[in-house]
Design a protein that fits this description.
Elements (H helix, E strand, L loop, with lengths): L1 H13 L6 H19 L1 H16 L2 H6 L6 H9 L20 E4 L9 H16 L4 E8 L14 E7 L7 E3 L9 H10 L3 E3 L2 H10 L11 E2 L6
Antiparallel strand pairs: 1-3, 1-6, 2-3, 4-5
Length: about 230
Amino acid sequence: MGTLTLLLLWPQALSPEEKNPVNRFLIWVYRPVILWVLRHKAITILIAVFVILITLFPFRSWVVEKSPEGLLKTISEKVAVLFPLDNIGGEFMPPLYEGDFLYMPTTLPGISITKAKELLQQTDKILASFPEIDQVFGKIGRAETATDPAPISMIETTITLKPDDAWRKVRVKRFFSDWPEIIRWPFSKIWPEEKRLTPRELKAELADAIPFPGLTVGTFVGPIKTR
């Protein structure tokens, strides 16, 4: 204890706190700031309120997701980093787009191996028909290991996707889409009437394409996220 006390107090005995160059620099920076704040209390409160509003404003949900594709959406996505609310996720790790999907639906309990195999083949065939998908590999049940106790009623399908630039372009309805071509052309340069299919839209199409009775609507998530 005596040694610890000596180590803490000895520097102050050699050099007083007021003469410490680090403390002098901090005081030099802090003093004009605190004096300005004390002189302009109303402005300081308004700045604090403004910062709170920026922190709590759901910019991505209200602005970015509702902005039309094109220059306006690109700018709004750049500005969205200044609004932290929508950037705070419910998980420690932020969402990661891995370029692959893992599809994990379940069937009714007690399904036979023959029927489970038939469902697996049908779902794999439907998924492979999408032009954005490169490969589909599905399995039912578990391997000969105790580390993955999956029943026959559980299907796991790994979906390998093609690069994003090979995905389909879909039409986007704009407010000027019904106008004559000569008037519509300059607007289409700012708000294009076509856009690449997004991973979220592809997931929705895949889920709608597999309406088998007795098969739960599985989720399409990244393989790493499920582990």
